[in-house]
């Protein structure tokens, strides 16, 4: 394409140069040519020269046009141009013989030469355009691709399903005005248990199968200690979620891992009610699992909340009709929650007579496993590329 | 906790609901039903039959042909069987053609839909049904000890079944028309670990009357205290000890009704005494223990702590080593039981027992739990004690057991009891304020309604004091919030309205750190890295795999005192083991071109032994093999740093000295004069240790250093108006000079007028003299305020050239 364009430009340039040189100017007076053609003996002499010249030019033109017409490719046109119009071309040769022409005839002859040249050039351009059009059409025709061939994708990485689920949860709660905060994974016994109304030797401590560093320091078994750390700062009201790693001494199998993730939620303000807890988690479930999702609150027990509840959502596979996925019940358990125990508030320096609040804890892996129908928790920690690329 | 519905109904006689209704209602009122099993599942058309006549099969030695009466009016059917334990006159369970049994007697495989029985011919003789073994009825000899081993269950061999009417429902007769519910009882509801407690909940849930078993006075005119004395030395661990005596023991099987109830709870019937003990434990949640009184020296019980190192043989035959935190039951001379856990070999009941000491005690739950752990035992009794039992229940349970002994004729109960109960546990009073409860719940429930709920679960109300009186079995009720939960669960969690919190608005946001992490993820993923997650704990052996020196500070770790095993025993101090293990997993699974990243903490102890929380540092770790090399990784890091506003110059020091990386292909990453991370090719030996068969590259960024420097301040720089000048520098450079050094010279010499520079060629080889390399840079110079003049350009270039000369660099001719 570029090449053709250049040729075209050059052609114009050349014409321009000729114009500037004044070759054509004089000849652009047709009546004078007629007059000169029709004048006496001089004319005779002239006529013979003229006729010879005219015939010669005619012959050149005819030959050129014939060659142009019969040419079969673009390159050939250039050869024709050179052989007729080039420095050593036939038409140029005629021009060179102009010195033999009487000065008064020169305009006439010049005109004729120019006409001839113009005619050849026009024909050349015409033919060239035809060639180019044909070539473009041929190229376009040849360029047809099989659009069903495989896509060429840039190789981008994929987020871990846990993170995708977490970001979804974060999006929902940030939208409801919650701040996302973090706390230490290696935690003090006080924050993990005592301040959550789980005193020393409480059976709940055993239930959680804690990893200990020493008698005061442990690997947190839940994200609930972050609640306490935030409450202790004394900045009220509180609306926060705290995602993070937690650890429990469970052997690795398809449904257990000694390291997993929880998301803790906490709201503390004046006049926070159990109804608010229900409304908040219903909204959460709808946003996470779909507008049709219903939630069911069942009484449960956690040392740091009272009343406490476990929350089931309608099975998002069967919509609550009962299927293999929800073991026929139509419900799937997703989280634990409750109203913050007054003792927990008090221990963190918040007056339970003035403030109340609710807390909830969600297992991140549980959500990821449920949402993506992953049947073995171990897959989440193997980091097999073929697994990760599915998310 | 497994309980048959029939036992609940015994104490809530009006209870009338379907299995599903029961499941749902109990779950919603707080006694979560995990599931249920219908004992009569797949048992259809099974009647009591009587074998009238047995003949040999004409064509088979091992078969017999029975004429079995299956209806009261005398209708008989012909049944061919291979069983050898039947005789004429026996009553047996018969499944009639068209009926179903639960399992096969000969194979252990599961039949979820049972086995259909059709009429058919056995060796040419017609058979219209089947006589059943206990296994075919879906149970086993564990629960029906009188059933024949490997044969038909001969009902008439059992005193209680021998008069069963022919044609009557055999499933009903055998107590199999029942459903066993499995509950998940929360640890605070100790009272619900008993049938009585669950029945109370069921009655309250369905609004029916609760009729608990009536415990009657028992005992002869003798006094237990004449048989035994009790001394509790460590009352802190044993708030109550009740002892009674039973003499003239008559061991026998317990009646079918008791056996059925125990069986439904998953307890094997043994004999009347053992069964009564188990029965009371299920019914009342009070573990009991029976000692052979004749083995007890000095006719005295002493409850005391064990001595350190004291040894004791429990009745399972094991010798246990004890310490002074463990409570023992002793006689005048020796220990006879591990309190609350297991009795001793030396005092256990045998078939020859004549007089028995019955114990119903209350022990400190925590102590029992810890003791159980120390001696490595976990018994049913222990599981109950651990929860902290109500001492007031001990005497009731004891009297209930003695009542059953009398009713079953298992022995003669001696009058009175020895009861050591120094500090009586009194009911707790909890202030009641309906408004407060409504405010907490967001409800408008009337005071009367609330008091109605309390009454249903036996909480009294002192209207004058406005206090709820909580019986001692409900130790979970201590404050207003606890009462609110009682109200909520009987009002129905479902009935509580739904609202969203009002009040002061709050701004939702991610912390700055989390924002930076999110950008890290985006950048990593953009360049093909997928996010992995690995454990925070690992084996101390990984330090050897990573070739760390013996005294490397990274070997100082936060160590878990009770790990799952050595492989999970230390908190990681560098993130590479997780990454390399993941790469190795992928390599071994033949995944190609794997790129992973992880954002996770390392844990650096501040001091050892650990006295304060360690320094948890978030690390952004990249790992890859396949396409790409060191410089790709370097580019990704720079891209990330730029994205989070670390726009100053990043520099690299090849003398990072990291043992796990290739010595010639590693660098510390410097920013602001501080090491913010490192990258490199993994050392070939480390690759071997992780069984990765191709080159792998890793990079680690210390996120706290990055987060503290990150910013999102962007200031628009005007787009240059004046022309730039490009100058190429083609140099011959001593081999040991790093391009980083050349660039430093270029930057220094270029000053403000240097807009950019880039390396466009680096070459070592034939055309270059030995010990040198050819390096070519293209420099772009520009002045923002004017067109540069030739003189100014020369000035800049001269400065640069002079600097280069000092490095021994020549321009290429």
Task: Describe this structure as you would to a colleague.
The complex is a heterodimer of chains A (391) and B (813). Chain A has helices at residues 2-21, 30-37, 40-70, 74-85, 90-96, 106-142, 161-175, 189-192, 203-207, 224-232, 274-289, 342-347, 364-372, 379-382, 385-388, and strands spanning 179-180, 186-188, 217-219, 238-247, 259-269, 295-302, 305-314, 331-340, 356-363. By secondary structure, chain A is of the alpha+beta class. Chain A has 2 domains: 2-142; 161-388, Bira Bifunctional Protein, Domain 2 (BirA Bifunctional Protein, domain 2), CATH 3.30.930. In chain A, helix 7 packs across helix 13 (364-372). In chain B, a hairpin with a 4-residue loop joins strand 25 (460-462) and strand 26. Chain B contains 20 helices and 40 strands. With 813 residues, chain B is of the alpha+beta class. In chain B, 25% of the residues lie in helices and 26% in strands. The mean pLDDT of chain B is 94. At the A-B interface, helix 7, strand 1, strand 2, helix 9 and strand 4 of A face helix 7, helix 10, helix 12, strand 27 and helix 13 of B. Strand 1 (179-180) of chain A pairs parallel with strand 27 (509-510) of chain B, so a sheet runs across the interface.
């Amino acid at each position: 394409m570029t090449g053709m364009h250049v040729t075209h430009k050059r052609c114009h340039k050349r014409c321009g140069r000729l114009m500037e040189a004044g070759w054509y100017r004089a000849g652009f007076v047709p009546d004078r040519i007629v007059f000169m053609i029709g004048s006496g003996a001089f004319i005779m002499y002239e006529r013979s020269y003229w006729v010879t010249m005219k015939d010669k030019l005619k012959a050149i033109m005819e030959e050129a046009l014939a060659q142009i017409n019969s040419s079969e490719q673009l390159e050939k046109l250039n050869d024709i141009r050179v052989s007729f119009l080039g420095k050593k071309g036939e038409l140029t040769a005629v021009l060179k013989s102009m010195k033999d022409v009487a000065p008064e005839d020169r305009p006439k002859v010049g005109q004729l030469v120019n006409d001839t040249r113009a005619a050849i050039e026009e024909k050349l351009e015409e033919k060239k355009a035809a060639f180019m059009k044909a070539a473009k059409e041929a190229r376009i025709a040849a360029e047809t691709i099989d659009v069903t061939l495989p896509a060429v994708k840039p190789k981008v990485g994929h987020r871990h399903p846990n993170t995708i689920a977490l970001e979804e949860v974060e999006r929902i709660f940030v939208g409801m005005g919650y701040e996302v905060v973090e706390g230490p994974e290696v935690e003090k016994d006080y924050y993990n248990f005592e301040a959550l109304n789980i005193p020393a030797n409480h059976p709940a401590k055993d239930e959680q199968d804690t990893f200990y560093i020493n008698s005061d320091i442990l690997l947190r078994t839940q994200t609930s200690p972050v609640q306490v750390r935030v409450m202790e700062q004394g900045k009220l009201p509180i609306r926060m979620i705290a995602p993070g790693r937690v650890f429990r001494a469970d052997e690795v199998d398809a449904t257990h891992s000694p390291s997993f993730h929880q998301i803790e939620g906490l709201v503390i303000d004046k006049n926070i009610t159990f109804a608010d807890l229900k409304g908040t988690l219903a909204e959460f479930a709808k946003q996470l699992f779909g507008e049709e999702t219903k939630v069911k609150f069942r009484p449960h027990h956690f040392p740091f909340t009272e009343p406490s509840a476990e929350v089931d959502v309608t099975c998002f596979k069967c919509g609550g009709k009962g299927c293999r996925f929800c073991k026929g019940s139509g419900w799937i358990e997703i989280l634990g929650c409750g109203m913050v125990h007054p003792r927990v508030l008090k221990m963190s320096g918040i007056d339970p007579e003035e403030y109340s609040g609710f807390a909830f804890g969600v297992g991140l892996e549980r959500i990821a496993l449920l949402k993506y129908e992953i049947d073995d928790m171990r897959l989440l920690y193997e980091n097999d590329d073929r697994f990760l690329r599915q998310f | 906790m497994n309980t048959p519905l029939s036992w609940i109904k015994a104490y809530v006689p009006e209870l009338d609901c379907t299995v599903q209704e029961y499941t749902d209602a109990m779950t919603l009122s707080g006694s979560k039903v995990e599931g249920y099993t219908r004992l009569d599942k797949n048992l259809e058309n099974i009647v009591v039959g009587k074998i009238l006549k047995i003949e040999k099969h004409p064509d088979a030695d091992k078969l017999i042909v029975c004429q079995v009466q299956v209806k009261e009016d005398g209708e008989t059917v012909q049944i061919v069987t291979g069983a050898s334990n039947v005789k004429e006159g026996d009553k047996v369970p018969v499944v009639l053609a068209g009926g179903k049994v639960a399992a096969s007697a000969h194979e252990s495989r599961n039949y979820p839909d049972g086995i259909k029985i059709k009429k058919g011919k056995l060796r040419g003789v017609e058979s219209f049904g089947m006589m059943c073994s206990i296994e075919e009825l879906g149970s086993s000899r564990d629960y029906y000890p009188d059933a024949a081993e490997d044969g038909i269950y001969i009902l008439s061999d059992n005193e209680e079944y021998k008069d069963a009417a022919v044609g009557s429902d055999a499933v009903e007769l055998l107590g199999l028309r029942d459903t066993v519910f499995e509950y998940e009882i929360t640890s605070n509801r100790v009272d619900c670990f008993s049938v009585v407690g669950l029945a109370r909940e069921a009655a309250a849930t369905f609004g029916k009357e609760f009729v608990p078993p009536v415990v009657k006075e028992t005992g002869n005119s003798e006094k237990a205290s004449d048989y035994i004395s009790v001394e509790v030395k460590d009352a802190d661990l044993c708030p109550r000890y009740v002892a009674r005596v039973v003499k003239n023991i008559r061991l026998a099987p317990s009646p079918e009704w008791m056996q059925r109830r125990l069986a439904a709870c998953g307890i094997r019937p043994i004999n009347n005494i053992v069964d009564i003990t188990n029965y009371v434990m299920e019914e009342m949640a009070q573990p009991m223990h029976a000692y052979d009184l004749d083995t007890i020296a000095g006719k005295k019980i002493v409850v005391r702590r064990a001595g350190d190192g004291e040894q004791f043989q429990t009745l399972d035959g094991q010798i246990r080593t004890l310490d002074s935190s463990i409570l023992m039951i002793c006689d005048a001379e020796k220990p006879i039981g591990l309190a609350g856990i297991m009795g001793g070999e030396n005092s256990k009941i045998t078939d020859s027992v004549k007089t028995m000491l019955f114990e119903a005690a209350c022990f400190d739950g925590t102590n029992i739990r810890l003791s159980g752990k120390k001696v490595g035992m976990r018994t049913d009794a222990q599981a109950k004690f651990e929860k902290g039992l109500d001492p007031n229940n001990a005497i009731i349970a004891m009297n209930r057991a003695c009542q059953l002994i009398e009713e079953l004729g298992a022995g003669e109960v001696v009058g009175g009891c020895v009861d050591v109960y120094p500090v009586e546990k009194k009911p707790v009073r909890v202030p009641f304020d309906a408004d407060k409860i409504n405010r907490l719940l967001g409800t408008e429930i009337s005071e009367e309604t609330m008091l109605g709920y309390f009454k249903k679960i036996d909480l009294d109300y002192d209207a004058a004091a406005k206090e709820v009186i909580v019986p001692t079995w409900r130790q979970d009720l201590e404050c207003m919030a606890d009462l609110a939960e009682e109200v909520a669960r009987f009002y129905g969690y479902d009935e509580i309205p739904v609202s969203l919190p009002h009040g002061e608005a709050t701004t939702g946001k991610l912390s700055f750190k989390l924002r930076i992490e999110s950008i890290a993820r985006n950048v990593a993923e953009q360049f093909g890295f997928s996010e992995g997650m690995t454990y925070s704990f690992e084996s101390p052996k990984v330090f050897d795999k990573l070739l760390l020196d013996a005294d490397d500070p990274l070997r100082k770790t936060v160590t878990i005192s009770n790990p799952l095993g050595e492989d999970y025993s230390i908190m990681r101090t560098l993130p590479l083991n997780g990454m390399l293990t993941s790469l190795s997993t992928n390599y071994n699974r033949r995944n190609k071109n794997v790129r992973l990243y992880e954002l996770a903490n390392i844990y650096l102890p501040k001091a050892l032994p650990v006295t304060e929380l360690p320094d948890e540092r978030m690390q952004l770790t990249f790992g890859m093999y396949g396409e790409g090399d060191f410089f790709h990784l370097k580019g990704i890091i720079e891209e990330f740093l730029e994205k989070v506003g670390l726009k100053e110059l990043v520099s690299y020091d090849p003398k990072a000295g990291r043992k796990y990386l290739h010595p010639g292909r590693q660098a510390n990453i410097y920013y602001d004069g501080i090491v913010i991370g490192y990258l490199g090719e993994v050392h070939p030996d480390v690759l071997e240790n992780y069984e990765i068969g191709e080159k792998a590259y890793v990079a680690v960024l210390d996120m706290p250093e990055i987060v503290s420097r990150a910013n999102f301040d962007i200031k628009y720089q005007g787009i240059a108006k004046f022309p730039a000048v490009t100058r190429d520098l083609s140099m011959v450079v001593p081999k040991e000079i790093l391009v980083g050094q050349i660039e430093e010279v270029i930057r220094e010499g270029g000053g403000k007028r240097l807009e950019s520079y880039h390396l466009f060629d680096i070459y070592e080889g034939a055309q270059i003299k030995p010990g040198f390399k050819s390096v070519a840079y293209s420099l772009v110079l520009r002045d923002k305020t004017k067109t540069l003049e030739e003189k100014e350009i020369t000035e800049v270039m001269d400065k640069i050239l002079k600097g280069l000369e000092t490095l021994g660099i020549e321009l290429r001719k």
